[in-house]
Every structure is written in C-alpha cells, then in structure tokens.
Amino acid sequence: MFIHTSYIRKLILPILALMVLLQAYIIPSAIHADGPSITIKTEYGYKGKVKNGKWNPVKITLTSDKDISGDIVIETTDNYTGAASYVQHVELPQNTPKEVVIAIPGMFYSKDNNQIKFYQGSVENGKYIGFKSGTPYLQGNPGYGAIIGVLSDDPDTMNFMNVLRGDGYNLDVVSMEPTSIPEDPMLLDSLDVIVINGFSSDTLSELQINGISGWVKSGGTLVLAGGAGYPKTASAFAELSPIQYEGTFSVSELPQLASLGENPLNLNDGFTLSNGQPLEGSQVLYHTDDKPLFVTRPVEQGNVLYAAYDLAMAPIASWNGHPKVWSFLLKDDLTLTTNQNGMMSPTNQLSNLGHILNYFPSLKMPAFSGLVWMLLIYLVVVAPVLYLVLRKVDKREWAWWIIPLMAIIASATVYMVGSSDKTKELAHTINILELNGSGSSNTTSATAFFTPRSGDYTLEFPENTHVRLQRDNSGFGGNQADSSFIEVGSEETAVNLLNMPQWSLAKLWTQQSDNQQVGALNVEISLNDKGNIEGQIMNETTSDLTRVVLVIGGKVYELGDLGKNKKTEILATTVGKSMNMMGGNLGSLLYPYTNTGNNNEFNRERDLLMQYAPSTSWYTKGSYIIAWSDDPMTTYTHEGKAISSNQLNLWAQPVTVELIQNDVINIPFGYIVPTMSQVSAGFLNQDPNGMVNMSQGTISFEYALPQLDQGAAYEELTLRGMSVGQNTEFKIWNAKKMDWEVVEWKSGGYTINTDVEQYVMNGTMLRMMVSAQNETSFALPDLRLKGKVKP
C-alpha cells in the first residue's frame, strides 16, 4: 500500500515532538541551561557494606560551579519496604566539594528503584537541577550478617575474624577512617561491633565521640583494647570503660585463652598486657595471673568489652585459636549463616508490625446485623409499604421520584453510620519497650495515621527521629516517593504526605537514638529447696501494667495486673495458672484463637507475641517478664495539633534467677538455654518448639553459666537428652585436657560427678558439639548442675 510522504510528516512529526516533550517532563535528567553545573559522587554504607533493615549512611559529595543552596533528595520507590523521599538541606559554595550524609533503610537499591535529585531552594517549590556528571542513584545489595567496624592504626586488625565464615558465621570486617565516623548515632545503626585498638580516640571530635557513645547506649557493642596502648585507645571513653588503667604486666602463658580457642598458644618470650581495676557495674569474664583479661560492662542497652592485649600483636594476632575466642566473646553480636532460631530479617519484623496496625481500635466497620436490618427495612418500605400507601392515595406515579429519593436517603444513612468514626485524624501506635533493668528502654514504634479526607498532611515528630514510611491508599492511587517527604532535623522531624486519598493510612516506623527513661521492673526471684520459684516483682516503671507474665524455666506464670510502685509476691503455692511451654509460641498460649475473627480483642497482643517477639534477644534467651499498657509512649502532631491516638505498649525485661541458696548451687534442667556457636552443615534451622533440623555436618553449642565473683566448685553435671536424633554423636569439651569426649547416653541421660570443673571453662561456660551422619532432627540437651560456692 502506498502512503504519501506528506501524510507521514503530518502524522509522525507531531508524535515525535510529543514524545520529546513527555521525556523532558517525565525524566528530569536534563540539565537546565541557565542553572549551575553540579557533580555528584555517592557511597552507600561503610565501604559498600550495608545491613538489611538497619539505618545505613549514604555519603553524597556535591560540587557546584556556582554558589547555590537547596535540598538534596533520595527518592526510594520500592513499595514493599516503603516508598518515600529523604530530604536534607545543603549549602553549596562555588567549586568546593560538600559532603552530605543521610540515613536510609538498608535494602537492595538499583537504578530502577531510587533516584537522587537536587532542588534549588526547596523540594516543595524549588527548581530541579540535574547533575552534570556522576551516578544519580544508589546501587547496593544489603547483607544480614554482622558488620564489625575497626578503628586502629593497623588496618588488618580483626581480619582474623574472616576465618569464622568457614564456621557458619555471616560477617564483614570494615576498617574505618576517622573522618567516616558520623556524629549521629543512628548512622552507626548498621554496625554490630566497633573495635578500637591502638588508636588515639581523643583525636575524634566531641560530636563523633558522642555519636559512638549514643550508639553504645542504644544497643551497640564497643571493644576497647590495645595492651600497653590502652590509655590512648580509651582516652575519649573513660565514662564507658569497664576498668581503670593501672599500667602493664607481662605473661609467658595464657591458658584461659588457649582453652577458649581450643588450640595451644605459645607466647615465646612473653607478652605484654594492660592491667586494670574493674569499675563498679563491670564483670570480669576471665583472669590471668589474678588480673582481668576480659571485662564487660553494660551501658544502658549496649555493652563495652575490655581486652587486656593488643589485638594486632603477634603471636596472638595470627594464632589459629583467636577467631574461636572472639566468636565466644561476641556471640550475642554475631550472626550464623543458617537460620538457627527461625529469626526473621528486621524488614520482615517491621512488616509484621505494619500488619498489626491494621487492627485499628477506633476504626470499626458497621455491625453486619445493623446493615442487614437497614436493608430489610429499606426493602419493606420501598416495596410493599410504599406500594400500599401510594395505591391508597391513588398516587402510584409518585413512585418515580419517591423511590430514588428514598434510595438517596438510605444511602446517606448508611454512609453516615459507616463514617461516624472517620471524621477526624486518628493514630494507632504499637510500642515495644525492651527494658534493661536499670531504667532505660530501647523502644521500637510503629504507627498508622488515618486521613479522614483527601489532601496534604504534615506530621511532626521529636528531633532526630528517623522514619520509614509506607502508604496504604485503600486502592486509590499508588505509593509515590515524590508525594512523601521525610526530613530529619535537630529541632523536629517533618513528614509531608501529599495527595493522601480520603480514608487512607500512612504507616510509619520510627526510631530514636536516645533511649527512653521509663524505669524498670525490680525482680527478685530464687529457687527454693524444692526447685520451685519464689520471690517478688516491684513495678518501678512509669506506667500501670496489665496482664503481667513471667516466663522462666520453660514455664509461663500469669501474675495479673501490677500498678506503679506496687509489687506482687511469687509463691510456688499461689502463683496461679502455670503452663508448660515446651518451646511453643507464647502468643497462642496466652491468647488462643477464637471464632470471633477480627473482633477478638486480643488480636494485637497475640500477633505481637507470635510474629515480632520471637526475633528479639530477650525472647530467645527464655527468661523474661512481659506486660502491657495503653498509655501514650510515642507522640507526634499534625500541623502542630495533637492527634487522637490508640496506643498498645508491650513491655519486656529479661530476668535472672538466684540459683544459690546458702552457698549451695542448684541449676535445674531448663534454666540455661544453649546457644549455637559454630556450624558446618548445609542446612540448619531451629523450630519454635526447640527441635533442631540439620543436614549432615557438625554444630557446636555453649551453655553460659552464672558469673560468681568467688567462683564455683561444681560437683555434679547432668545432661538430659530427651530427643537426640538418629545417627548423631554428642561430645563435650574437656577444657583441662583440651580435647573432646564422647557423650554416652544412658536412658536419655549422661552424668559426670567427678572432676566436673575440668569441663566448666573458667567457671563460666560449658561447650558441646553434635555431629550428624545424615539429615536428622533433635533437641539440644538440657543441663543440670550442682555444686557449692568456693570459700
């Protein structure tokens, strides 16, 4: 078929022109001719290491050929993890590189799900300025393993930890530059451990020192080491240090270290260590020559660990037992590659909280029975009643306007009934307060903001609050990053929500670096001579607590309500209902499902305990108190005005049991939960009921024993193997002989009642391993210990 060229010009050229205009409008990557020329360079995480679900730093370096000020914006468009724009104002001097650091959630980033933009003036009403060169988006794939940051004059310090990858650990060691240490503690959120060794910490700025200190208090682990160089290592952190420095001393052997590392250690001509006096609140983990070798000190939610030697000094630095030592010292911070406790990623934890926010107490659907009655009344009135009335008055033609009018009235009535509780801004907030027992709480918060009408909304949070956002628009529109702006400031954090539809939700997960000071539960619990718990719990928190529950020794004790400054006695005969958990899920035990669907008043509590709590450290340790309250723990405003809010608060605090009575030590079965420390199996996970499922291979696990200043003389050790699996072999580590011994099960048990102390490493730990010849399932053995306190 022949088509005239003039026709082609008339048809095609306007389409091409339209495409060019659309490209200029939709893809704002072209540089404005009259604007400044700006280059961009980015770094995501610490030397490319990023932690999934945690806050990670993005360092953006901008250089402009003109003086200009405006907003740098990181748009993230992944609807699953939250689509939003993170905004920070920046001043760009002419031809001077300017660094900007913004905290963003750790996730997979590519050119398809994020953009970096610059707006002259402000993002709300400023002019977009494209970048002359550089990559205007982030690229990176986050990990789930531990990240260890190192500040040391020797960049290879702690590189020996990489050997642990062969033992099933997922970790990265990152040598940090002093200039990369941020001032905001939240920018350190992706680091699990910071090691300072042989580095003059007082060369850091005061704000950097405060940033590290704030990170520790919010849950980080700081290692201070250096041997003779310890004074310069700890000079900036005297308030956090576990010891008071008292010079140095030399040793020719370190048997405690050799036992921990399961390998002989030859120190040749001697080895220099720092000497220190443990400070109040500190705990000596290991001694050498009656001097502290390792000392730990809790600092609010975090921990500071002192090591008496230089971690980079030969021969220990290259000793093949060194990784094993530090896998034990940092066991609470390291991550096994396999799923040993069924723990989910932080992103999934937050998603679970988002699901629970859907149980919005102040937003209720109209009762189904009421709607049925309204429909029946409408049908009766419109059909027989209206017909009879109009026939009687001989005005049946009026039905043409009366029936539509009644339909409008009925629809309006249904709408008014359904919208009666949806006429104002509302909030629903879930808070999880993890108490450390000394007055502070690490709080995780998730909140849902309800919009009664369409439009723009501005929410204000306290200063330095970091926010993740996900919009639920009830099917009207999508989650658009360019409609949700988050700007973290020193005075407040502002969240701007543009084009929110009527009756929609914005879900926000908030986190602050400062812990809340909410008090503690004062717990005194011991075992009586019959092995039953007794004691008391005093509520010294800031809230009246309801439905208090004690979980300990594999059992659940419901203790009722507990007001502020009130106490409850725990007696073996009056404790009330006790349920044997057997490793089951606490949520389904305390709040079993009913047939009432979403009207079940404990849906939120059950789901919190079933979906969120199992991934927390206090839950997996097995001994804790939980309680509830509904008072406001997290507040924010809408355009300066308070928001009507429903709040549910889960309080949790780990507990310890006094296992010594009259200098007699009696540790019953189930009171010490073993933790896995080494894995060489292709597959391994642990069910909520405690059963371990693994393929052919080997795992090591440890029992952390009570720390006693005077030491313990254990006289009897019993292991109870309720389910040891098929084709498995269990061994126990003999610390004195530095060798493994096979456990010979007899009727599901194994007892050692001579030379027990040779199996208990420094009185603080017992180590075991299990080997499987093929795929199998088993339970880790329960431990019972009896003995006396050393005189």
TrEMBL record:
Q: Which UniProt keywords apply?
A: Membrane, Transmembrane, Transmembrane helix
Chain ranges passing through the membrane? 367-389, 398-418
Q: Where is the DUF7408 domain?
A: 189-309
| Top-rank lineage group of the source organism | Bacteria
Instruction: Tell me the SUPFAM superfamilies matching this sequence.
Output: Class I glutamine amidotransferase-like
Protein name as it appears in the record: DUF7408 domain-containing protein
